[in-house]
Amino acid sequence: MRGSRSRRVAVVVIALVVAATCVNLGLWQLRRLDERRTLNARILDRRSAASISIEGVSGNAGAEPYRPAAARGTYDVENEVLVYGRSLDGEAGHLVVTPLVLSGGGAILVVRGWVPFVMQAAPVRRAAPPANEVGVMGSLVPDEGDGSVSPDTDGVVRVLDVRGIASSLPYDVFPLPLQLAEQTPPQPGSLPTPVPLPELSEGPHLSYAIQWFIFACVALVGAVILLRRDRRAATGAP
Questions:
Q1: What are phi and psi of 130, to 5 degrees?
Q2: Are 75 and 134 in contact (CB under 8 A)?
């Protein structure tokens, strides 16, 4: 009888621990969902803001990731880089990032688009931009690095690290890259292929939270079933 009681206590304790753990994990996923929704709302608010004009490296109030922006200048093709391993529509390739030297001094890194994986070195001659002054319109995007990633001998970098790329350039660089949406005059050829801004999603957090809550219920229901079976066995009930 004492062994049966100890077994029932163990079943209850284990079920409660498992259920509490699953509930906490579900609540954590809901907090992550709330954080993602807050971030998405902030990004949408920035995307809908008025475009700012980037005329120089400093003194650009309101410059923040996902804010529409425009700049005028001349591309420094010889210092172009490729951001390695970025896919587009399921096809492997790279991002073409070219400094745009600004009339107000310094430059801004322009994410001009995507090229296929077979193009392994910069500058990409088949994706050469107009040689004269251009007007670029698009959105500022986050700096992906911490200043530790610089271009290799082929002009390739693993991440869009503004400070790392700027370390090899002879001028100051704007702290955020500009992802091109429109250009005047337009690109003369079909490359690079324009890259859209990433779609906003809530991720899998809600489905994960539901799964953890289901696991908690399964643990409790399973414990009840085991306790009933154990009681029936102890009393000899059918």
A1: -55, 145
A2: yes
User: How many C-beta atoms lie closer than 10 Å to residue 199's C-beta?
Assistant: 5
pLDDT at 218: 92
Average pLDDT, the chain: 88
Q: What is the mean pLDDT of residues 153-166?
A: 93
Q: Is the pLDDT reported for residue 70 higher than 90?
A: yes
Q: From CA 129, how far away is CA 52, in angstroms rounded?
A: 23
Residue 197's identity, in one-letter code, is L
Contacts (Cβ under 8 Å, ≥6 apart) of 213: 22, 23, 26
Alpha-helix runs per DSSP H in the chain: 2-47, 162-166, 205-235
Geometric angle at alpha carbon 218, from 217 and 222, rounded to 5°: 120
Lowest mean per-residue pLDDT among 23-37, 51-65, 174-188: 51-65
Cis peptide before 142 (omega within 30 of 0): no
Please name the residue that has the structure tokens 């102890």.
Answer: 234
**Residues paired with residue 93 on neighbouring β-strands, in sequence order:** 116
Q: Determine the average pLDDT of the residues in 219-234.
A: 80
Q: What residues contact residue 8 under an 8 Å CB cut-off, 6+ apart?
A: 227, 230, 231
Instruction: Give the CB-side neighbour count of residue 92, counting CA atoms within 13 A.
Output: 6
